[in-house]
Amino acid sequence: MDHTQENEILVATQTYSVERPIYSYPALHGKLHKKDKVPDPIGDKIKRALSCTPKKIRNIIYMFLPICKWLPAYKPREYVFGDFVSGISTGVLHLPQGLAFAMLAAVPPIFGLYSSFYPVILYCFFGTSRHVSIGPFAVISLMIGGVAVRLVPDDMYVGGGGANSTNGTEERDAMRVKVAMSVTLLSGIIQFCLGVLRFGFVAIYLTEPLVRGFTTAAAVHVFTSMLKYLFGVKTKRHSGPFSVVYSTLAVIANVKKLNICSLVVGLMCFALLLGGKEFNERFKNKLPAPIPLEIVAVIIGTGISAGFNLEESYKVDVVGSLPLGLLAPATPDSSLFHLVYVDAIAIAIVGFSVTISMAKIFAVKHGYQVDGNQELIALGICNTIGSLFQTFSISCSLSRSLVQESTGGNTQLAGCLASLLILLVILAIGFLFESLPQAVLSAIVIVNLKGMFMQFSDLPFFWRTSKIELTIWLTTFVSSLFLGLDYGLITAVIIALMTVIYRTQSPTYTVLGQLPNTDVYIDIDAYEEVREHAGIKIFQINAPIYYANSDLYSNALSRKTGVNPALIMAARRKVLKKHAKELGTKGKPQSSVVKDEDAEAGGEEDAKQEEQIEENAKPMTIDSLVQKTFPEELERFLPPGPNVHTMILDFSQVNFIDSVGVKTVSGILKEYGDVGIYVYLAACSAQVVNDLTRNRFFENPCVKELLFHSIHDAVLGAKVREALAQQEALAPPPEEDSEPITDPET
């Protein structure tokens, strides 16, 4: 027998017994004494905030420069080899992905290498994750490219104004670089400001279904953007709504002009990469490190292209010029900010969301913590400073991060080593890759999309587990696919927030019953053993009560419990109306009998009878009629229904209640009270009690007696109240004291 079974048997055989009074809210708080909380003087708070101690300075440095915390604790014997292998493996991925993602960003390939160098070095100092690989990412690059193509379309420069095609292409690329730098700077400023203002929680609004649906749609965008490079056709690049449709139709329309040589080279690399990745996955436990298939494909493709002169002989598009050296810093054009601020916000949020998601996965796996606010600051610094050195927006690359972690990387020194390899290419050997066919880069990008396309398998999972999350996934995918990534993301966030409102507006309402001989109360419709107490209904809601669901709450209360005070009141009015008619018909002949001979003598009596008739003709209140009507007469006309004397509202799952909700609960107390049904509130949290107090729910002090510490306290309180009421009803009326009658003659 294992420990789990032993624990289950032990728990099942243990019992406990508690003897205590029934606690209403006043009774419980009458025995409690609140702690006196003396607020610190404002002067002490300011002094403490402005104080400068060595510990405080050290914490600030550790928070803003995490490298100062983990670098002194670096263990060379344990970490060096893993970081070295990981750095080399990640570096050889940076090269082809940097070149390929620059194509997605609509900028010359060399700028992809710049984006693979500067941000990686900066993140090493400011980032809190030890395993993510920072640099160009397909989704972010595609979003950058969408902005650049929208503001600088091909028609603006290429083939227009009488300029030759080469000069037009160079001018177009220079302008697109300027747009990309502006977007990068603005997105970096946004990320940095959000981090300083401690807005790292914004990532929670990008739920996992939303992120996965968004990245899947982005994968489709990337795939369609890469088709023209794989087929070797020249088409206009589209951006904005339905760009994926236009791009696909453009490739299909020009399929007759495809370059056979380019397609063959691309498919060969595609087969090599796909088969090699399956080999790496199958034998990952036996291989010391994954085979760097991307760099192998780059070397083979470059060798074949240079050896057979594919560019001149077969018109195969190649990477082209890769100038050696680093560019001097330059200030991005801030005059473009008003044209790109929406895209910058989307890029900033998506980049942070992807990074923090991967960082948290690795942090949980390896037992350390990441700070979302510091990650925002780190990404903001990478993008802001990087934009000065002609980099475009970066984020965490999923494929590179998995390689960096799986090959033994322990710290961001692996990323620094990878960036040094990119620096070597930029300064010395970049020209060797000028003959690399673009079809090879296209194949590399498409193969790396496999993980994103596998996210389509989420659909059956969400279908089984949550239709709401399935709706978020599908709407995010469809909106991002057809409206574009920027407007698609905005639409997805709005839909995700609407689902939150829907969840609270349409919560689960449950009628509870007692598990016999316990203080456990659970759904009466779910279990056969659960029983209801006679005359008591227990109603539970699993959401806050606020303006969006308060009316639905009161309607569900009457519907689920079967006790509708409006119907009871209507039936009672009908009974009283019939009873009033009976009283009127009985009194009518008596009031009409008048003797002529006694008319003058009985004038006063006639006047009294007429007043009595007029009084009976007036509309009478419910309470006055009830007081004049015997119960057996009411029961003669009332329809059969549940004999409920107490309604208990379980607030254990209500985390807040607003002013509209308080008015609704007050109305429930009045409506049910008018028909003789008590309403108790059970298991209210301190927050709910504070909300009720602030909204003057306890303006009548007697209302506090309706609050109980738990459901069981409320049930016992209702039973005690009914028992006392029955005793009073059965007790004989008190005898009036009378003096003995004496005979005056005796």
From TrEMBL:
Stretches assigned to the STAS domain: 526-718
Bilayer topology annotation: Multi-pass membrane protein
Coiled coil: none
Start-end of Basic and acidic residues biased regions: 605-617
Intracellular or extracellular location(s): Membrane
GO CC annotations, alphabetized: membrane
Ranges for region Disordered: 581-618, 726-746
Pfam families to which the protein is assigned, alphabetical: STAS, Sulfate_transp
Predominant subcellular localization, coarse grouping: membrane
Domain of life the protein comes from: Eukaryota
CDD domains named in the record: STAS_SulP_like_sulfate_transporter
An example molecular function term from Gene Ontology annotations: secondary active sulfate transmembrane transporter activity
PROSITE patterns: SLC26A, STAS
Ranges of Acidic residues composition bias in the record: 734-746
UniProt keyword annotations, A-Z: Membrane, Transmembrane, Transmembrane helix
Keyword Transmembrane in annotation: yes
Transmembrane segments: 99-125, 132-152, 185-206, 213-231, 251-275, 287-308, 339-364, 376-400, 412-433, 440-457, 477-502
PANTHER family: SULFATE TRANSPORTER
Name recorded for this polypeptide: Prestin isoform X2
